[in-house]
Amino acid sequence: MAAAAAARSQEHEEAVTCVDFWCNEFGMRARIALREKGVPFAFVEEDLRVRRRSDLVRRMNPVHRSVPILIHGGRPVCGSLNIVEYVGEVWSGGQEQEGTRRLLPADPLERARARFWADFVDREVYGAQTRFFTSRGEAKAAAMADLLGHLRRLEAVLGDRAFFGGDGFGFLDVALVPFSAMFHGYERHGGVDMAAECPALVRWVARCAERESVRGVLPSGHDMYEIHMEFYNIE
């Protein structure tokens, strides 16, 4: 028992590094999760505007050569949702922010649902967002309609709860809230009023933004739109 406890303590104390780019919605998840759990970490920026990935990324994620990467004690953990789960498990007894119990629900069915909707964000929300910014004419309007439909579906999942995790900020909140930094871009580029289209979701964003973990990571909507204009060649 003592040896196991000592091993866990050593694991917690090992150096933690997050490799990411400041405006990467997927990487923001990792940084928010680490802040939620009160885990000190170093941030190494990987500029995604540069075509060739750094030696560090190619060494730590040789399969996909992508970020975010969490490096814990010299060992890499890749994939944004995988990282969030890892952080929640390893630092399950960390110094969480008020209103956070555990990132993934204790109930197996609720865990499965949280994972399902997080995957929905990655596949449907991100996919529609990309089509919206890269298409023109009728295709752009259709992509915006799809995007709003996906967000309204998530709004229905939220219901009248404070957070997707219930009273406490949790896994699905971490998965989705980085995308809220693009709401300004939806309004600027698509002429939509997010407060009118998804009012409950906009109120949820405001509650999330009160948290230090989110406030310290989420860029301004203006900055996100400006850099994505560059990414998507928007004039």
TrEMBL record:
Which chemical reaction does it catalyze? RX + glutathione = an S-substituted glutathione + a halide anion + H(+)
Which InterPro entries does this entry report, sorted A to Z? Glutathione-S-Trfase_C-like, Glutathione-S-Trfase_C_sf, Glutathione_S-Trfase, Glutathione_S-Trfase_N, GST_C_Tau, Omega/Tau-like, Thioredoxin-like_sf
Top-level EC class as recorded in UniProt: transferase
Q: Which SUPFAM superfamilies match?
A: GST C-terminal domain-like, Thioredoxin-like
The record's subcellular locations are: Cytoplasm, Cytosol
The leader peptide range reads none
Q: Which PROSITE patterns match?
A: GST_CTER, GST_NTER
Q: What is this protein called?
A: Glutathione S-transferase
